[in-house]
Amino acid sequence: MARIIDKEEKRSEIARSAIDLFSQKGIVQTSMDEIAKSAGVAKGTIYLYFKNKEEIMFAVWDMLSQQHDEAYAKRIRSDMSAREKILGFFDFTECEKEHDKEQMLTLYQHFVSSMLVDKTGLYTAYFESFFEKDHAFISGCLHEGIKKGEFYINNVDLLSHTIIILLKGVLVKAKASNMSFYEAQQTLMQHIIYLLEQCTRKP
Amino acid sequence: MARIIDKEEKRSEIARSAIDLFSQKGIVQTSMDEIAKSAGVAKGTIYLYFKNKEEIMFAVWDMLSQQHDEAYAKRIRSDMSAREKILGFFDFTECEKEHDKEQMLTLYQHFVSSMLVDKTGLYTAYFESFFEKDHAFISGCLHEGIKKGEFYINNVDLLSHTIIILLKGVLVKAKASNMSFYEAQQTLMQHIIYLLEQCTRKP
Amino acid sequence: MARIIDKEEKRSEIARSAIDLFSQKGIVQTSMDEIAKSAGVAKGTIYLYFKNKEEIMFAVWDMLSQQHDEAYAKRIRSDMSAREKILGFFDFTECEKEHDKEQMLTLYQHFVSSMLVDKTGLYTAYFESFFEKDHAFISGCLHEGIKKGEFYINNVDLLSHTIIILLKGVLVKAKASNMSFYEAQQTLMQHIIYLLEQCTRKP
Amino acid sequence: MARIIDKEEKRSEIARSAIDLFSQKGIVQTSMDEIAKSAGVAKGTIYLYFKNKEEIMFAVWDMLSQQHDEAYAKRIRSDMSAREKILGFFDFTECEKEHDKEQMLTLYQHFVSSMLVDKTGLYTAYFESFFEKDHAFISGCLHEGIKKGEFYINNVDLLSHTIIILLKGVLVKAKASNMSFYEAQQTLMQHIIYLLEQCTRKP
DNA sequence: TATGAATGAGCATTCATTCAT
DNA sequence: AATGAATGAATGCTCATTCAT
To answer: What pLDDT, in 10s, does the model give residues A118-163?
Structure first.
């Protein structure tokens, strides 16, 4: 049992080492050599923990995603409005430092870039699973908002998708316009708030 | 006297040859060798017409963009409603064949992918110019719709951006969900229609 | 007859255009394209006047060499001492501008560089002919100096060679030590003066 | 445990393989492919031992230079005259075979050729360091000769430089005149002997 | 005479992955 | 488990020269 924990631990260490490199240089531009050096292990050792470079990227993504989920779970309160819950979902308080948030944005962009040219279907499938998870959450919030009388919505599925797709669109826009993390976040918030206002019940 | 050559024509020929390759294999994955072979010229010849590989991509994109603009200009009528004009903007009737539309979608995705990892700023700047062009057009339509009494809109700029950003988001979603061109288009339309309906004046 | 003169004239024009390029970028690094552009003719045209790139270099060298000879012939006086004649030979008053002298030095270095890796024997033969010409001149001066009682020399041939070989060595040293033309010239003069002093008759 | 490899030894092996090629074809004309093939390793392997092609050239030069220094150290005797020490410095007994001496000459010429067109300053700096080393040695010998009463010299620095510069000049002359190693060496010796005789104390 | 379009061989360097130790 | 030496395919770009017009 101890061994397995160690194995998991080492995997995480290597993945953590890769984060900086991936976000600074890009996934393709980061060589296994660099990851090994940065993780303080031999190149061959990496292949004992990961089948290939892509798998490292997925591990990185899993780590960050899990961090986000955990941090979100902590800051969410059941007495929050649906609107607050949704907007809070796109906050990234798990990133303590400014730098981490910028890194997160860059990583996400690199990840989307890889997915867009993916031939294997690995990135695609992985990415799609996040779409579904996010959709389940957002539409859950919206339904809750309807039940509570906060919203009036015709097509919850559609609105939920609009929000999630907007997030992806903002990632692209952020790169094109050379936005900082905060600018990108503000842009996204603005759009979501606009969408939610349209279906908010006025007293 | 030198051989008489229509330089523009030859440039286009080479670019056209590259389109298939770019959309099938991706931009990075397509080698200059392949483009040359596919265009039926020597490798060196390509460099008489293009400074480098990137310039080919931009030429390809310019060609398609121009085709789209021209086709749109032809099918647009001044008596159309603003809604029809906007929705018609995302039609791609310039692609006659089914295959061309799929190609268009794939190319767009590859282009976005390259832009997302662009270090030089070339792709980014080029891409941003399209954002601006599209924004000018969409917000123009919205303003026209307001004037005609078709819409009631608080923040034209915001809505216009929402629409354009949604397009980018749908590109990402289309790849993740392995959508065909038609599915992607339907998805986009659905979202735009939803947005426009929210601000459509009811009689 | 007029035609032949024109032909010579055009050859010179092209060669003159090449001088700047050769001295700035080096012989190998200068492309025929650049020479053509700089000369204001088409690439193919160059081949009507020169068999290949090497021939341009030789033409350049011939021009400069002829200029040197003519300028030297003008400034030499029969009543000069042998010492003055020899030292005057390594002056480059035909270069009016500072820039031209630096260019001359660089060109000479590039030329020697090409000669040192020459496989065809063309550069080598060409270069050797200059050795012989210079030797004839220098040893002529030395003999004259002996006759006039200016020098006492055991082995005129050897001293003459020493002087010529020193010139080549200084070219190499000048590059290694990043010398300006003047520094290189001073260095050469110093060495020649030293050599000549050893065999100067004291009254 | 990884394969046990003497990295220094392998580096030398590769460099040794390059020597033949460099001297036969020239440095620029020798491709990494050829070096790899000749060394019996894959192209990529070379880059595990050398950063780039230039580094191979420097390694080659270091090896030969070290060989020369070691061989010279062995054959020098403290009771030799300064003249013998200086002349012995330009002997190349470390080259056992005739072929090796010719190779040495050719290599030196190629190296000078590269230096003469060097833009980076690498070759230049490297070359200059040899100038300095040689100057220290030669002037050391001359001073010793003066102290022992063997020479009478006004300007030791100048004479030392003359000798070193002559060596470079002879390299150029040797190529132009298609000299064998022995001819080149004889020529150099002749000149040095002449210079030293001029300042030798007669009893 | 002049043009300039076309050619295509040539080359340094990178890097994911393997596998002998 | 860990290492790190070795691999070799893959690629954008240059340029002297030719030759159809």
So the answer is: 998 989 999 999 999 999 999 999 999 999 999 999 899 999 999 9
* Structural domains for chain B: 1-53 (1.10.10.60), 76-198 (1.10.357)
Instruction: Measure the CA dihedral D131/D134/D137/D143, to 10°.
Output: -60
Q: Using DSSP, how many helices (H) and how many strands (E) does chain C show?
A: 9, 0
Q: Would you call D63 exposed, middle or buried from its count of C-beta atoms within 10 A (0-12, 13-18, 19+)?
A: middle
CA of D56 to C1' of F7 (A): 20
Check C116 against D109: CB less than 8 A apart.
yes
Give me the torsion for CA of D191, D193, D195, D196, rounded to 10°. 160
pLDDT tens-digit profile of D93-110? 888 788 999 999 999 999
Give residue A121's region: left, alpha or beta (phi > 0; psi -120 to 50). Answer: left
Which chains have 3 or more CB–CB distances shorter than 8 Å to chain D? C
Instruction: Round to whole Å and give the CA distance between A65 and A48.
Output: 24
Answer whether residue C196 shows pLDDT above 80: yes
Is residue A70 classed as helix, strand or coil in its secondary structure? helix
Neighbours of C82 (CB within 10 A): 21
Q: Give, in Å, how far the C1' of F14 lies from the CA of A106.
A: 36
Cβ atoms within 10 Å, residue D4: 5
Beta-bridge partner residues of B12: none
The values of phi and psi at residue C200, to 5°, are -85, 130
Judging by beta carbons within 10 Å of its beta carbon (0-12, 13-18, 19+), is residue B90 exposed, middle or buried? middle
Model confidence pLDDT, tens digit, residues C81-115 = 999 999 999 988 777 788 999 999 999 999 999 99
Contacts of C70 (CB under 8 A, 6+ apart): C94
Size of interface C-D (CB pairs under 8 A): 126
Sign (positive/negative) of CA torsion C116, C120, C124, C127? negative
Residues of A (52-81) placing their beta carbon closer than 7 angstroms to any atom of strand E are: 52-53
The H helix count followed by the E strand count for chain A is 9, 0
D162 contacts in chain C (CB < 8 Å)? 166, 191, 194-195
pLDDT over 50 at B1, yes or no: no
CA distance A124 to B173: 9
The A-side interface with B (CB below 8 A) comprises: 26, 28, 109-110, 112-118, 124, 127-128, 131, 155, 158-159, 161-162, 164-173, 175-178, 187, 190-191, 194-195, 198
